[in-house]
Each structure stands twice: as C-alpha cells, then as structure tokens.
Amino acid sequence: PGPPPRHPGQPGGDDMRREYGGRNTLTFRKLHGFKNIIAWQKASDLSHLVNKVVSKFGPGYYKLADQMRSAAVSVTGNIAEGYCRSSLGDYIRFCQIARGSLGELGSYIQDCERWGLIEGQELQELIRLYGDASYFLDRLIQSLVKKKQDGTWDKQFWVKEEAVSYDVTPHPSECPPVSPEFPSAPSEFSSVSSEFPSVFPEFRSIRRHNMDLSNKVAIITGAASGIGRGIARLFARLGASVVVADIELAAAEEVVAELEEQGYPALAVEVDVQDAEQVEAMLQATLERFGQVDVLVNSAGVGTESPIVEMLEEEWDWVLGVNLKGTFLCTRAVARWWIENGRRGKIINLSSINESVPLAGEAHYCASKGGVMMFTRAAALELAPYGIHVNALAPGMIETALTEEVTMIPELRAAHLKQIPFGRFGQPEDVARAAAFLASEWSDWITGHSLAVDGGMHLIGEESYLWAIERAMGHEATIPKVPMCWPPGAMPEE
Predict the structure, then answer these.
(1) Are 1 and 7 in contact (CB under 8 A)?
(2) What's the pLDDT at 281?
(3) Is residue 277 classed exposed, middle or buried when 0-12, 13-18 and 19+ CB atoms within 10 A define those classes?
(4) What pLDDT is recorded for position 161?
(5) Residue 347 belongs to what H/E stretch?
(6) 353 vs 25, 36, 392, 450, 454, CA distance in Å?
(7) How far apart are CA 117 and CA 62, in angstroms?
(8) Which distant-in-sequence residues (6+ apart) come within 8 Å of 363 by Cβ?
(9) CB-based burial, 111-147: b 16+ in 10 Å, e otherwise
(10) Phi and psi torsions of 366, nearest 5°
(11) How much helix, strand and coil, in percent to the nearest 5, is found in the chain?
(12) Using CA atoms, how far apart are residues 428 and 450, in angstroms rounded to an integer?
C-alpha cells in the first residue's frame, strides 16, 4: 500500500515542496538574487565565452583549457557564494577571491594572445567582457567595503538584494540577459539553514580550490616594484592584508593607494633591509596596524653587472647586504616574534636560478642567491620545531626593471628566449602565483625547498650578460679573443 501520507508541513511534505519550489519565496529570492548583480552577469557571460573558445584548443593545450575554465567558473561561483552568506565580511571576502580568479584568467588570456591560440573577433570579445567584468566587480567590492566602513549595512540586505542597491550598477531590468548555461538551483531541499551555507556543490569545491589568504597579514619587502609588487597585488586579491615595505616610500605608497582604491587593506612602510633597527620598526608598524604577522616575503633584491677584477668593494657589500643580510635580518625579527608569542608562520625568500646557475659578471649576485638558498634550508631546519615554514622561490628571467638592461639588448634577448623551454620571459605574476601557493595551507607539508619559477630555464642554463653588454657598449677590446683554457698541446704559438 506504500508509506503513510505525510502531515502537511512535515519535512518533505507537499507544503515544503510548494514553499521551496515557488519562485516568489524568500528562499528562491535568496538563492537566485545574485543573478541580479551585473558583475555576476558579466562574469557569467565571460565564463560562457571562455568555455566556447577553449573547446577549440588542440590536444596539447588541455591543461590550459581546464585552468581557464576553472578560473572563469570560480569568478561567478565566488560572487554567488558570497551573496549566499548573511555576513558582509564573507561577502567581501568571496568577492575578493573572485577578483583574484579573474586576474588569473586575465593572465591566461594574455598567454593565449601571445601564443596565437585566440585571435580576431573572439579575442576582442573576450577582452571586452573581461574588462567589463573587472570594472563591475571592482565597483561591487568598493561599494561593499564602503558600506562596511560607513556602518550602513542592512542585515536584511541579503534578502532584498538588487543590483540597483549598490548605487553603482543599473537596475536589473537594464542588464543584459543572463547566460542560460549557468546551473540553476534545485527546486527542492531537505533543509535550509538560517545562515544559508553554500547550496551548490560546485561552489563549495570552487572555494576549496582557491588559495584563500583571508585573515592573514603579509609583510612583503621590495614590494614597491617588480616581483614584490606582483606578489602584493595577488596576496591582496586573495584576501590578505598587505604591508608594502620598500626603501622607496613614495613608490610603496603608490602601490598601497592602488590596493586601497580596490578595497584591499594595505600599509606602506619605508625600510632599508640592511638596517636592523629599520627592520624592527617595520615589524612594529605592522603589529600596530594589523596586530599580527602570518607571512614574510623577503623580496627586496638588487644587482649590478661587474667583472670580478673591476668590481668595487662597495658593490659587493651592497648586493650581499640587501640580498643576503636583509633576508637574515627580516627573518630573525619576524621569527623571533612568532616564537615569543607562540605563533606559526611562513617565510618565503626570493632567491634566483643563479643560486646554482653561474653568470659571468655577476659573481656577487650569484654568491648572494646561493647564500639565500642555503640560509633557507638551514633556517627551515632550525625553525621547523616552532611550526615555521621557510621556503624559497628561484625565478629565472622575469621582465622587471632589474632585468631591463638585459632584455633591451636584441642579441641577449634572443639568446635568453632560446634558453627558456616555454619560449617567453616570465612576468611578476608568474612568481606571485608560486608565492601564493607557499603562503597558503596547500604547502603545509613543504619546508626548506627552493622552487624554480623560470619556465624551465634552469634545465638549460643562462647566457652570461658580460660579453654581450661589453659588445653592445663598443668595448670589443675587453672581450677575450681566445678560449680561456686550451687543451694539452693545442696552445697556439706566440
């Protein structure tokens, strides 16, 4: 005869199906309200186009296609996930994670353009949608942060959400249609909590697969430019509060202004990492502003090009002082605070493939980076009992101001490109992604490691700058005309 009929209102009964299946209920509005947000709509359209474009990639680009799909879906997923939370802080945090995923997607699109995988009208449409999604998501984050600062957040805002409520986007009726391919919520639920945790399983997996740095504070030295600036930008987008520490205060303040404009908490600190007192002041300024430190990135670095026989003692001291002594002083200060306060943390040192690949004309730089690599290993061994991770990144040829004098010489630029298996120079964002991994919980079982971030350059070697630069400067007379060491019996007669 079958099971007895359920009483109306009993879980699973007809009333529940009507309540949760109706399109005008509070629950339905809650679960579908994010579709009114124009930032989500633009991201959804972008995700649809990405899926269409990458489906045409050849068999050698399956991994890239998967990465682009994941990044695109993560943007829409995290906006919706944040919306489905009743906490304003969570809403901001998930939108910031979405912004990080959008930046990651932008890097992939740039790679596709460089490699000729996407061209013509599709490329132009992809760039247009990416720009739209970036603009509206940034405006959304700014608006939410302002509501938090002004104290104007309505706790019921998550129920009556509409795009017009942000005062920065048009009314939903003026928005373009939403892509139908986005998965809709099921019409029935066995239970729905008052906090409305993530309803869509795909959203939960998206959140787990993001390198979330929320509630973490990161000190990044040398963060006013180059690799350090790239790391600061990505860490902020992943939710971290960022301390932009640099000897150039004005440049550091520019980076902080950029981050704060996007709604990310940041602090600019002037520091010469060779000075122990300034390093300690940097730590204290961080603690006064944020109350904690969770990640230290020793990114400050310098270099010069000088043959050993012409190198000034001051050059040697400066390069070793910033690159190696600075790494030691910052590590000592932060590790000491962690140990005294029973805290754990992660230290990321910026080494170089020149920790093991030598360069003529850069003996002091190679020595400093080799020292950073061994210091990383020794510090990891010593600090592991305190729960402190110490790892290093070893970039190859990254396009920054430090490498500009090399990449501007056609002969040397072409030679370097031949020595990079992936066929392109690295960008600061490439190193930033590796730094995010080492700063996240995903690297909790890794310490004392130096990770090459060089497109495979360490597998081949690196062209020495010295002779190419001398040749470009017209100093042909200084370039040796014969091999340095002749085989036995092959020495030419005088």
Answers:
(1) no
(2) 98
(3) exposed
(4) 37
(5) strand 345-350
(6) 59, 49, 11, 9, 8
(7) 12
(8) 308, 311
(9) bbeeeebbeeeebeebeebbebbbebbbbbbbbbbeb
(10) -60, -40
(11) 55, 10, 35
(12) 17
Instruction: Give the 3-state secondary structure of residue 238.
Output: coil
Q: What is the mean pLDDT of residues 137-160?
A: 70
Is the per-residue pLDDT at 210 higher than 70?
Answer: no
Measured CA to CA, the distance from residue 477 to residue 465 in angstroms comes to 16
Q: How far apart are CA 84 and CA 29, in angstroms?
A: 10
- How many other CB atoms sit within 10 Å of the CB of residue 369? 28
The amino acid occupying position 219 is: I
Residue 267 token pair: 């602090």
Residues 6 or more apart whose Cβ sits within 8 Å of residue 38:
136, 163, 169, 170, 175
Q: Which residues are catalytic?
A: 365
CB atoms inside a 10 Å sphere around CB 461: 12
Q: Is the Cβ–Cβ distance between 125 and 48 less than 8 Å?
A: no
Run of H or E residues at 255: helix 249-261
Global pTM?
A: 0.57
DSSP state string for 264-305: --EEEEE--TT-HHHHHHHHHHHHHHHS---EEEE-------
CB atoms within 10 A of CB 185: 16
Residue among 420, 442, 441 nearest 430 (CA)? 420
HSE of 465 in the Cβ direction (CA atoms, 13 Å)?
24
Structure-token pair, residue 342: 């029973």
